[in-house]
Amino acid sequence: MFVKSRKLLFMLMVFFLVKDSSAQKIMNVADGWARNSVNTVVFRKNAITSFKGIQFVSFYDEESNVVIAKRKWKSTNWQIQKTSFKGNATDAHRSISIAVDGDGYLHLSWDHHNTRLRYARSLQPFGLDFGQEMPMTGVLESNVSYPEFYTLKDGNLLFFYRDGGSGNGSLVINKYNKQTKEWTQVQKNLVDGEGKRNAYWQAFVDTKGTVHISWVWRESPDVASNHDMCYARSTDGGLHWEKSTGEKYVLPLNVRTAEYALHIPKNSELINQTSMVIDKKGVPFIATYWRDENEMVPQYRLIYKKREGLDYAKSII
Length: 317
Known about the structure:
Elements: E1 7-18, E2 21-33, E3 48-51, E4 54-60, E5 65-72, E6 79-86, E7 97-100, E8 106-109, E9 119-121, E10 144-151, E11 157-165, E12 168-177, E13 182-187, E14 198-205, E15 211-218, E16 226-234, E17 259-262, E18 275-278, E19 284-290, E20 299-305, E21 312-316
């Protein structure tokens, strides 16, 4: 929700499944920042999360404070905690991401756009009080953008981010072990820009625990240099990667070795990150938009793997 005033009434869309139908309910949580889209950008992973009947949300308030709130499912009462952390909310890149590990600890990352890592963890399971900012691995943590948490089936976490800048960066993946409460670096350069380009990705963990990523390439800071859609997946928590055919990748992935789901030329108004989902059979569906050569405006598209073959297809949404 975007308004012109200095305040945003932060509203959470909650979906309840009921017998033979579905319903949605809008809940007012608190006032939040509304001078740009930092609280609503698509590449947040995630600003809302749930675990064992408790739902958490995160947002910046009107003074750029990081705020965390929680409620029990079916309850309309929110417990709200303004943390000691602040971010540069005037930059819409600097969104907040949260995740809950298998022991109930809340993990928080915020305020990134080619900046140092900012990360903290709750002091208690399901708690809203956080410890001090801390490093994860201490490696490649000075130039971070687009932080994303993903929860694995075993309750451990993955943390994706870009190391480097627009048109010149690499995809880094850290893994959190809930037993040791420590992070290790699984990939320091999974998708390699080779000093010439970077990947803008979206990711998804399916019901089997397979990690999927798809991405576009950008050749320079100019968004017009975005091109193509690529794909990879991992069945072991991000350590080894393969194509949709099962062919094993030699890492790091680069512009020559990546599987191309669809070739999309430069100057097509291809967007950076959007969304991806995997169905029960492991078939990827990638939502994005671009403009074909004979079109005047970009169209929303769905790129998906054909069930009957190895080719990809596209359709207009």
